[in-house]
């Protein structure tokens, strides 16, 4: 049987420092892992991006910091990672992050923090319509906050934990 490999990588695809501080994407590779890839966008060079964020401590142990999150909506569930990928295809979105927002009836909804480019006059409804058009109406943020910038770690990773405090 083949061995499964796990890494934590930064946006350049390099392994994060083993310091317990730098957060990156948790990726896996090995026999049997391919069946868990939802689509080819989750793969790069045979490595599957789990959607989880984590770090490596000084002893080389991997810790999950931000687990992959599915958020319920009227059509089923929304993958936060997939919704972020859809939003980044919008011509006027510079950056985005999706977090769950408590909802009285659904439990949670997808809330998007969005940084627009300087030339954009896009509205919240424009963004929602773009997502609906891109996914046949199945995946879109139910609420949006436009911001000038997103909070980040020194290595440039978005701090979703901080975004929770902004609501």
Automatic annotation (TrEMBL):
Keywords: Fatty acid metabolism, Ligase, Lipid metabolism. It holds the Pfam family AMP-binding_C. The keyword Ligase applies. InterPro entries: AMP-bd_C, AMP-bd_C_sf, ANL_N_sf. GO terms for molecular function: ligase activity. The keyword Lipid metabolism applies. One of its GO terms (biological process) is fatty acid metabolic process. Residues 83-157 form the AMP-binding enzyme C-terminal domain. Coiled coil: none annotated. PANTHER family: ACYL-ACTIVATING ENZYME (PTHR43859), BUTANOATE--COA LIGASE AAE1-RELATED (PTHR43859:SF4). Belongs to the ATP-dependent AMP-binding enzyme family. This is AMP-binding enzyme C-terminal domain-containing protein. It comes from Virgibacillus salarius.
């Amino acid at each position: 049987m083949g061995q499964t490999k796990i890494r934590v990588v930064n946006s350049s695809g390099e392994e994060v420092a083993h310091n317990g501080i730098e957060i990156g994407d948790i990726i896996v590779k090995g026999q049997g892992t391919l069946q868990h890839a939802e689509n080819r966008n989750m793969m790069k060079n045979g490595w599957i991006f789990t959607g989880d964020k984590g770090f490596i401590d000084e002893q080389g142990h991997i810790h999950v910091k931000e687990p992959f999150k599915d958020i319920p909506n009227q059509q089923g569930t929304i993958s936060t990672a997939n919704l972020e990928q859809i939003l980044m295809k919008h011509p006027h979105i510079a950056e985005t992050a999706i977090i769950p927002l408590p909802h009285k009836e659904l439990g949670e909804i997808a809330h998007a923090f969005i940084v627009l480019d300087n030339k954009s006059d896009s509205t919240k409804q424009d963004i929602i319509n773009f997502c609906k058009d891109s996914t046949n109406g199945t995946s879109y943020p139910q609420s949006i906050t436009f911001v000038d910038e997103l909070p980040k770690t020194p290595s440039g990773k978005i701090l979703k934990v901080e975004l929770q405090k902004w609501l």
